[in-house]
Amino acid sequence: AAEVHSDITEVLVTEEQILERLKEIAAQVDADYAGKDLLLVGVLKGAIMVMADFSRALKLVAPIDWMAVSSYGKGTKSSGVVQIRKDLDTDLTGKHVLIVEDIIDSGLTLSWLLENFESRGAESIEVFALLRKPDAAKVEVNCRYVGFDIPNDFVVGYGLDYAERYRNLRDVAVLAPHVYS
Ligand code: PRP
Ligand code: MN
Ligand code: MG
Question: Which residues does the UniProt record annotate as the domain Phosphoribosyltransferase (predicted)?
Answer without folding.
Answer: 16-162
